Amino acid sequence: MRIARFAHTGGMSFGVVEGEPGAGPEALTVAEIEGHPFKDITFTGERWAVADVRLLSPILPSKVVCVGRNYAEHAAEMGNEVPKEPLLFLKPSTSVIGPHDVIRLPPQSSRVEHEAELAVVIGVTGARRVDRAGAARAIFGYTCANDVTARDLQKSDIQFTRAKGFDSFCPIGPWIVTGLDPADLEVRCEVNEEVRQLGRTKDMIFDVPTLISYISHVMTLLPGDVVLTGTPAGVSPIVAGDVVSVQVEGVGSLDNRVANLEA
Could you tell me which residue ranges the Fumarylacetoacetase-like C-terminal domain spans (predicted)? Predict the structure, then answer.
């Protein structure tokens, strides 16, 4: 099931996206549901063409928990060793934007880069000190994410908060897919239709249940929280005018235009 959050003439709603996977917006519809998607799905009877609504970030998390250097080749391209335990950092909720929203380049940085990732959305039970089985039960679904990073600031600051935390630096979407097996999915990033990143989740150092369990022993994961699982090799700069497309097999495509903050 594909769960979207969208704006329409009557306000904002969650809905189930209907249509063939891979079809364009003109061939998809979204059926409105009552309330939030974490409880039993009840349809209101209202339905729109996806082309006639604005897709928003599929969830508004209380926090975005990110995992660094979770692909060996990416760790190597950054000149870092593979971590012995998951390397965690946070992105603020204010960094979250949705599909087709604009990534704004801050004037403080001269080198902003894309990082395509599989994102995990936590379900209604949340997760606190769970084992791998409990981690699997805590997952609601999966979406695409772009862990946009001011690389020069990351290197100068040593820690990641400023480099990862600017407004618009966490595009997620276009929707949440439930019932997906995350063990071996293609993760791709295209910039202006040029492939920059291409990896598979089977090459993660720490798999999804391991990550959720590990994080839950540090902090409680609440319903709607998002976990970014790391990026494959190939990160590179983005500049104003670029269009960045993050694609995760079985989920879809998250597309965002890049512009300077002053624009």
Answer: 63-258
